[in-house]
Amino acid sequence: MEGLLAEHERLSKSGTFTKSLDDIQKTIDLLVKARETIAANTESASLNLAKLQTPVKNSLEDVHKDLEEVRKCQSKYLKLLDKKFKDKTLPQMDYVALSAQPALINRAVAMHLLREGQFSVASTFLREATKDQVAENVEEDLTMSGTEQDLGLDTLKSESLRKQFANMYHILHEMKNERNLLPAIEWARDKSEELEKRGSNLEFELGKLQFVWLFVGRPNQNGQSNLYEGRQHALEYIRQELSHFRPRYHRELQQLCGAIAFCPNLPQSPYRRTFLNNEAWDELATSFTKEFCALLGLSADSPLYIAATAGAIALPHFSKLQVIMKDKRTEWTTKHEIPVEVPLPPSYRFHSIFVCPVSKEQTTDQNPPMMMPCGHVVAKESLMRLSKNARFKCPYCPNESHPKDAMKIYM
Fold this sequence. Notes:
The model is unreliable at 134-151 (pLDDT under 50). 60% of the residues lie in helices and 3% in strands. It has helices spanning 2-14, 18-40, 45-84, 102-115, 119-136, 144-151, 153-156, 159-177, 182-190, 192-197, 202-215, 227-241, 250-258, 272-275, 280-295, 303-328, 380-387, and strands at residues 369-371, 377-379, 392-393, 400-401, 407-408. Helix 8 (159-177) packs antiparallel against helix 15 (280-295) and helix 11 (202-215) runs antiparallel to helix 12 (227-241). The strands form two sheets. The chain has a three-stranded antiparallel β-sheet. The chain has a two-stranded antiparallel ribbon with strand order 3-4. It contains 17 helices and five strands. The chain is flat and about 115 Å long. The chain has 411 residues and is mainly alpha-helical.
């Protein structure tokens, strides 16, 4: 991998068209100058064109040499790529989970484009997706509103949703690039009740970072900071804007005010992690995105991105599995389960999983976990096999119960 990275670095430096573009520009300048000369004196046109042949030929040869160097770099890089990442046949599946639900795929793509701020592309995609759906359902006299309901386009096409995402990107731009928290603070105040219901501390964290930014001294027009003026502005801000957080964040406010005593020596003070944290802005931007999407009823990350990433992680395991199954001449016939465990990262685990201790199978919506009166839990199919629709003894304790006494567990 190190050799590939080194070649990539070499390609980024030498495999550019800068020199070629310079030579092309020189050729253009020669032609323009010759045109002006001929326009000024038409009688010498033949002589000027004859003089122009050799310089133009040499210039074009230089361009060819420049491009040859770029082609060599690209060819060597592509060979290393082919050697490192060998072409393998993708695993073939007889059953594709979403093959019969194109509407869900269309909605996921459209939502991803909206979340990424690609509003014009999303608009074109939604229009084309709607057109295709209407064409497929002409015989059924399906109206546009019905198609939108199937695709979820009534929500995705709304101008309100686009304005929401446009506002989110504006706030993130101000926060990350301009170090301006005021738009985010204003949004958090407007959504204060909803954020409080979610148990979110975003509004306070925004105010806290604004205090820190003022405390260390906001830059003036010359790009310099005045620590003394910064402290005055920070104290004024905490009195006017953060005082209503006192009942809930009393200790945190005390720590912010206590940092004044260590002001001349913050790097060696107990408050250095609060006031000298370079990652605080990015962390708060991530938290803001999460809360913004949550109030819209969306996850913090794009479902399409999560599905594609999880698929990329699982693909090597499925490829290896297909080779093993082909060698052993076996098949996997269960549609709603996978034959191997895919080691996804913890952030990609969204649902609790229960494996029946009797059948050793993972529960599903059709075979949910059932809790008996004694408190032990088994899958529904295991429960029915054990009981045979009559009183039965729990497989893990002496208690007896009837299947109708078991309760379904929601995980």
